[in-house]
Inverse folding.
């Protein structure tokens, strides 16, 4: 089944949180949670990790993902775009496997606590909307940017909505403004043809998929907080992760791999 392929991007060069993609969370490397969510999805037929790191590739394979290629270093820099590694993956699959998926589901490792059933709902809704160029998940923002300020050339605050004629509109309750949504990395779905035929990954008709608030990892403190959330609320991914890790440990002649008990 290659109609729907999950792509999990995991470059090695994170400066904000070094080795972010393999940081431990609930006893498993961070990337393993995205792999588990993809593999437990009923709509995703194949799970591919795109990385420039053999270390990350080994971890990904341990948890069941495919790593058919290593991403070139020039596509894994601070300035590389999503489109760079998505085009590379599609072109590699087309050239080496003669595979052309219809849909790509992008799952960023930095949003680890997903429910596979939510991913399936996103894929099904997108497949049911042929006019949409892509789907992006977001949650409603806890604060509205319409109440924010810029600073003018004299050092004074000014509102960012110069066309709003309401006196001191920036002091109005947030309910006085349109709802805004914060993209959260829970799930992105895009047509392969959109990526290959356009300079834009998502296109001009981005289907909205609203999720509950979900926490992303940008710091070590975020990892600790997500560990707390997983302990308190559980996760449908943990049983799968435990089995995968134990199977990998049993397969090694020494009986020991990194992270094995």
């Amino acid at each position: 089944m290659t109609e729907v392929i999950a792509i999990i991007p995991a470059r090695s060069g994170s400066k904000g949180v070094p080795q972010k993609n393999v940081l431990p969370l609930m006893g498993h490397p961070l990337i393993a949670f995205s792999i588990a969510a993809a593999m437990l999805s009923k709509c995703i037929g194949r799970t591919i990790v795109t990385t420039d790191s053999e270390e990350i590739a080994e971890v990904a394979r341990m948890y069941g993902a495919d790593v058919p290629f290593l991403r070139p270093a020039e596509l894994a820099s601070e300035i590389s775009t999503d489109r760079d590694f998505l085009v590379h993956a599609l072109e590699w699959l087309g050239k080496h496997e003669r595979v052309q998926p219809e849909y790509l589901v992008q799952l960023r490792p930095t949003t680890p606590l997903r429910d596979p059933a939510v991913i399936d709902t996103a894929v099904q809704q997108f497949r049911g909307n042929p006019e949409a160029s892509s789907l992006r998940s977001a949650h409603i923002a806890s604060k509205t940017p319409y109440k924010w300020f810029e600073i003018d050339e004299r050092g004074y605050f000014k509102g960012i909505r110069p066309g709003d004629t309401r006196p001191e509109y920036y002091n109005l309750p947030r309910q006085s403004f349109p709802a805004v949504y914060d993209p959260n990395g829970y799930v992105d779905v895009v047509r392969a043809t959109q990526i290959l035929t356009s300079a834009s990954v998502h296109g001009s008709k981005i289907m909205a998929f609203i999720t509950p608030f979900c926490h992303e990892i940008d710091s070590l403190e975020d990892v600790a907080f997500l560990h707390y959330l997983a302990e308190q609320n559980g996760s449908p991914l943990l049983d799968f992760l435990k089995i995968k890790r134990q199977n990998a440990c049993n397969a090694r002649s020494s009986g020991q791999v990194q992270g094995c008990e």
Remarks:
- The two ends are 34 Å apart (CA to CA).
- The helical segments are 30-40, 54-62, 82-96, 116-127, 192-197, 220-233, 238-251.
- Residues 256-261 have pLDDT under 50 and may be disordered.
